[in-house]
Amino acid sequence: MDFATIIQILDSTVRLATPLLLACLAGLYSERSGVFDIGLEGKMLIAAFASAAAAAATGSVWLGLLAGIFASLMLAGLHGLASITFRGNQLISGVAINFLASGLTVLLGQKWFGLGGRTPSLEGAARFEPITLPFAGSIAPVPVLGPIYSELISGHSILVYVAIALVPASAWLLYRTRFGLRLRAVGENPAAVDTAGVSVTGIRYAAVAITGILCGLAGAYLSTALAAGFGREMTAGKGFIALAALIFAKWRPWYALAACMLFGLLEAVSIRYQSIDLGFVMIPVQFTQALPYILTVVILAGFIGKAVPPRAGGEPYVKER
Amino acid sequence: MGRMPKWADAVLVPLLSLIIAFVISGLVILAIGEDPVEALKIMVTGALGSTYGWGYTLYYATNFIFTGLAVAIAFHAGLFNIGGEGQATLGGLGVAVACLMLPWPHWSLALLASVVLSAAFGAAWAAAPAWLQAKRGSHIVITTIMFNFIAAALLNYLLVNVMRPRGQMDPASARFPAETNLPDLHQMLGWFGIPFAKGTPANVSLFVALIACVAVWAIIWRTRLGYEIRSFGKSEKAAIYAGISPVRITMYAMLISGALSGLMAVNTVQGEANRLLLNSVEGAGFIGIAVALMGRSHPVGVFFAALLFGFLYQGGAELALWTKIPRELITVIQALVILFTGALDDMVRVPLKRLFLASGRGGQ
After folding, report:
1. In the 3-class helix/strand/coil scheme, how is B240-263 assigned residue by residue?
2. Maximum Cα–Cα distance for chain A, whole Å?
3. Cα distance between residue B33 and residue A75, in whole Å
4. What ipTM goes with this model?
5. Touching A: B residues 99-118, CB under 8 Å
6. Quick one: residue A121, left, alpha or beta (phi over 0 = left, psi -120 to 50 = alpha)?
7. What are phi and psi of B194, to 5 degrees?
8. Which residues cross the membrane (chain B) (predicted)?
9. Which residues of A touch B143 (CB under 8 A)?
10. Other CB atoms within 10 A of residue B31 CB
11. With an 8 Å Cβ cutoff, is B332 touching chain A?
């Protein structure tokens, strides 16, 4: 493996890790506030569809992005209604949202475009184009640093940089602001927050709304930046890998970045190589694909550093008994 | 505080939730510019109007009975087994091993072997998440989701690299010998002189599913284990205080649950495809969640809910055939049923409860 190949693999790692990172940070807000969310997949899917559909209809990727965020927010609102207001089972609500998105995207796609659930191919202003960072061309010939800057760091779409920037932003919001403190407290001990006169419902809805917005970004990235249009079931389990990454990261923003990059790398490797020959043993591609899930089970089991979820996670808050 | 009558809780609440789900589905059909009444007519004639339609409806229902029971028994223990998909995948592996391992002289022996192995494989796949939940406190929902994906990757590997016969292109196992083929309803009812359409996939597994319904009922309400499972599900603390071991109950409930999911493969793999394919489960593991919720985790309820979903599946296929409505409409209906009977249960239950209390007071 030469240097150019490594750069290429890392480059595709960044591209593949971005939707994971956005969805993972999305899940972080909801779960840290005590609302489990296994509907990340569904929200991403419907956002991917809405973005591609709106971008195809208007020719503007920014309107597409807005539509994607809106669609994802609607499902997030439904999740909030079921799990916060009506105190339903959050996991069941998540399952329902995944199916709803999977059915509706094909139903509406077929109705609007008649392409068997796909949207028309997007081009030009209907897609997020790669951004070339300043001096990328002039630095390129420099050995080692040149390719790293011009190929790996430069040349991604705006959402990639947004996703990366969201990591420190989320860390700051969660650990350095009043809202973040309250959000984390609501996930650990909602009764205490309630006693302090802060609305548990309000904080949880706010967290679920942030989850909706970030899932919207993740979905929009999939259909308008990574691919040129929506295809049925295009999230293909990415929402669940993001969930796995969230657990792997122990519900922390910076760890989430690392976990998503790791899982993105595994995906990039499994796309590029069918099987890896280590000399003494062949690693089949299916193993590389299953590795994120296996690692998550191992970390959940607490064999390598235990992942402890927010204490009030999954439980609806009942004021006064 | 008064309470709702038992029948209202068991029948009225799920029925109302179901009606809401169907009304919204009708609106969805209207929104995509089709006629909901016409759609319902096509579904009913296609799925229930002939023995041919029934052959498919019952075939799908058989799958959903197994996966529905699997989710239901876990619910009784307060566990949410979302891993039916993976457990059924492994069950399929068990069926393939049973059918390809020995030259069976008669289908009944092959059926026995595949029932045992599919249940064992399914249970084994549920054992790890169960153990991790019981011993290490890892959330069972997350681990079973992860195990679904791991099962898919494992099966993919085995079919591509190990079980695929030489020279075959598609990732599937060899065809099972003809002696292992299960009799379908046409053959079976023919023994009694009852006419039934030829060439439908409904087969003898349906009766295995019915036996499973009775067995699950007996386990839950007529054995000590069932009593322990129910008390553990109702209140973990009280159960522990009563000397019930949480590890033991979690393991047993999940093993039975996994075994039931695994049994589903007898119907699809041995009863229909006659070889192991890449995606023979096709989401039936997830539909089990809707079926168990609608059936209120009772085997009788599960049976009727499974029939309903069998009807929806076959009806949906007919819709896709005769109208412009895609099959995915069924996914939307399924989502709405899960949402209203599962997550938004209180939205229906609480107003209904008030209504009953008000009318109860008026009557005094």
Report:
1. HHCCCCHHHHHHHHHHHHHHHHHH
2. 69
3. 23
4. 0.88
5. none
6. beta
7. -95, 125
8. 12-33, 53-75, 87-104, 110-128, 140-160, 202-220, 240-264, 276-295, 302-323, 329-348
9. 297, 300
10. 11
11. yes
B327 exposure class (CB count in 10 Å sphere: 0-12, 13-18, 19+): middle
Task: Give dist(CA A307, CA A302) in Å, integer.
Answer: 7
In sequence order, which residues have a C-beta less than 8 Å from that of residue A181 and are 6 or more positions away? Answer: none
DSSP B198-242: SS---BTHHHHHHHHHHHHHHHHHHSHHHHHHHHHHH-HHHHHHT
Which residues lie below 8 Å from residue B234, measured CB to CB, with a gap of 6+? B78
Check if A108 contacts B (Cβ < 8 Å). yes
Closest CA to B117 of B265, B278, B219, B254: B265
- Measured between CA atoms, how close is B295 to chain A, in angstroms? 15
Instruction: Find residue A131's DSSP bridge partners.
Output: A156
Which chain A residues touch B80 with a CB distance below 8 Å?
A: 89, 91-92
Nearest CA in chain B to A92: B343
Tell me what pLDDT residue B1 has: 45
Residues of chain A positioned with their CB less than 8 A from the CB of B32: 107-108, 110-111
Count CB pairs under 8 A between chains A and B: 147
pLDDT band at A304 (very low <50, low <70, confident <90, very high): low
**pLDDT value at position A155?**
81
Q: Phi, psi at residue A156, to the nearest 5°?
A: -105, 170
Is B355 an interface residue toward A (CB < 8 Å)?
no
pLDDT tens column, A206-223: 999 999 999 999 999 999
B27-53 average pLDDT score: 90
Interval A248-292: pLDDT, tens: 888 999 999 999 999 999 888 888 887 777 777 788 888 888 888
| H helix or E strand, kind and range, residue B336 | helix B329-338
Burial environment of residue B210 by CB neighbours within 10 A (0 to 12, 13 to 18, 19 or more) = middle
Q: Does residue A273 belong to the interface with chain B, where contact is any CB pair within 8 Å?
A: no
Q: Which residue has the higher pLDDT, B113 or B279?
A: B113
**What is the per-residue pLDDT across B161-211, written as a single tens digit (0 to 9) for each?**
888 888 888 888 888 988 888 888 888 888 888 888 888 899 999 999 999
Identify which of B330, B333, B342 has the shortest CB distance to residue A92: B342
pTM of the full structure:
0.90
Q: Is A76 left (phi over 0), alpha (psi -120 to 50) or beta?
A: alpha
pLDDT band at B361; cut points 50, 70, 90: low
Secondary structure element (H or E) that encloses residue A277, with its range: strand A275-277
Which residues of A6-74 form beta strands (DSSP E)? none
CB-CB contact of B171 with B276 (8 Å):
no
